[in-house]
User: Fold this.
Amino acid sequence: MASLIPLAILLSLVAAGLHGTWNVLVKVSGDPMSTLARGTVAAALLLTPPAFAAWLIAGRPGLTPEAAGLAALSAALELIYVVLLSSAYRRGEVSVVYPMARGSAPLLAVLVGLGFLGERLSTPQLVGVALLLAGILTVTLPQTSGRATLPALLTGATIAAYSVVDRIGVRLAAPWLYGWLLVVLLAAGLALAQWARTRFAGRQAVPAPRPWRQATVVGVFMWGAYLLVLLALSIAPLAVVAPVRESAIVAVAVWGVWKLRERQGAVLKLSGAAATLLGVALLAA
Assistant:
C-alpha cells in the first residue's frame, strides 16, 4: 500500500486542478444550481457507456446492499451540498466561498472527533486547527455583509459527511462502480430538484440556464475529479488524500482575485487561503 502513495498523491493533485476549475466555471455561470444540475446529468450520461463496458469486462460485478446504500446516502448528501454551494456562490465571491467551504470540512471533522469521540491531537495538529480557524475567519473579513458565510460553512459540513461515507463505500465495491451509481442517483435527484424549482418558483424567478456545452464541461471536470478522489481513497488513507485534494484552495483564491477582479481585501483573502491550506496539511501530519 505504501508504494501506491505517490500514485494517490498524483491522482489527488489532478483532481484538485479539475475541482478548482469547475468551481470557477460554476461561479461565473450566472446560475450555479442549473449549471451543476445540467453538468451532473451530462456526466451521468457520458459515464454510463464506459461503466457498462467495464462492468461486462470485469465479469459483471455486483454491489452489496451496504455499498449501494452508502452510494445513495452519499448522493443525498451531495444533493444538499450542491444546493448549499449554489447558494453560497450566489451570495459571495469565489475567493471567499471556496477556501471557507473546503477548509471547514476537515476542521469540522476534527472538532467532532475532539468533542464526541474523545480523540487527542498532537501539537502540529493543534496548530493546524488554529490556522484553519484563522484562515476561515480571515477570508470572511473582506465580505461586506457575510451573506455567504453560513451556506459556505454548511457546505463544508456536507463535504465532511459525504467524504466519510465515501471512504467506507469505496472499500466495499469497485470505486468506478460505486462512483457511477452515485453520479446517476445524484443526477436523478438534481433533475427532480430543478423541475420542482421551476414549477414552484416560476420560470420568471429562475435564470436562463447556461448552454449544455458549458454545463457538460463542468460535469466532466466535476465528476472526473470526484472519481479520481474515489480511486485515491481506495489505495491511500484519507489523511494523505485530503490535504493534497485541498491544494486548490490557494489556486482558486488567487484566480478569484486576479482574473475575476475580486480585489476587495485581496491580501486578507490570499493570506487566509494560504493559512487554510497549511492548516489542512498540519492536520494530516
About this structure: The radius of gyration is 18 Å. The chain is about 80% helix and 0% strand.
